[in-house]
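HOLO CASE FILE
Compound: manganese (II) ion
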Amino acid sequence: MNVNRKVLTLDEFTIQELRGLPHATGQLSSLLRDIGLAAKRVNVEVNKAGLVDILGDTGTINVQGEDVKKLDIFANNQFMGVLKHGISCAGIGSEEMDDFVVFDDEISNASKYVVMFDPLDGSGNIDVNISIGTIFSVFKRVSELGKPCTKEDFLQPGNRQVAAGYVIYGSSTMLVYATSRAVNGFTLDTAIGEFCLSHPDIQCPVDGKMYSVNHGNFFQYEKQVQEYITACQKKNKTNGGPYTQRYIGSMVADVHRNLIKGGIFMYPATTDKPKGKLRLMYECKPLAFIVEKAGGKATDGKNRILDLQPEALHQRTPFFIGSKNMMEELEGFLTA
Ligand code: AHG
Ligand code: MN
Ligand code: MN
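Model generated. Tokens follow.
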């Protein structure tokens, strides 16, 4: 038997990573394993959508004023459940819950990490068989271990994330996560029910040919953004344009494609939503961490996303993220 087989499972990979860190406690590996388990459960439900009564709305509206789908709640409960019952997480924040949740039991209070997540991103696409995802962000606590975690543990800038990742429930199911070391992608092998390392050390191409933006909002964007989008549509020797427009409506899927193939994703401020639509804490910050670690860039149009000091769990921000050279071309327009 070849014990040096190349395809490592998520568990094998995180344990192997621990070998290089003699002081590590293994809590982060355990946390990632917990997230992988919740992702597998959500994946099963996503694949059943249509057969069971999981499609459609719950009839409620979340704190952000958006319709809540049944699968949003299912996913939220799965992620909350594994994190609460694990040994690594002291508390969570979620798109689907009004406030932070402090677990406050003996094991959770001794845990080093807090996690924020968007349980289902692109949930408007659930009913129509289009890729959707989960996004998560992990911070080391700043409060005293042994006590319940506090708001300060959550309200840390993105440059202090210890890990961030996403899951895509698509043509195959993938879990991609970044630590300070690298970005690695794992594909779910449904035959053995394990995420297996399929995309080691992901690097975002410095150039790309795709731009992702909601064109329906074009006349609501500020002038410089309109000018950049117009430039994307023109033949241009220096930038290789015209670019191809791709917009799925599940940011996690758009950003994943651009991470692998090169491209830029934008959700600018609009006149209706002057602060943007996307949420800093559990949508933009984790994706910014991943894409920067892979060599790309992410800003709110002026500032690096990872340097923003957050003020609230559900705060929104304009968002621009992608390949380094495309982002720098955009910055040229925004600072003009
Ligand atoms: P969510 O399903 O978690 O509310 O997020 C949806 C987000 C994002 O994934 C997507 O890119 C964007 O909303 C689409 O918004 P528009 O329909 O306004 O373009
Ligand atoms: Mn989302
Ligand atoms: Mn969501």
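CASE NOTES: The first strand starts at residue 57 and ends at 61. The domain at 210-334 is CATH 3.40.190.80 (D-Maltodextrin-Binding Protein; domain 2).
CLOSED: yes
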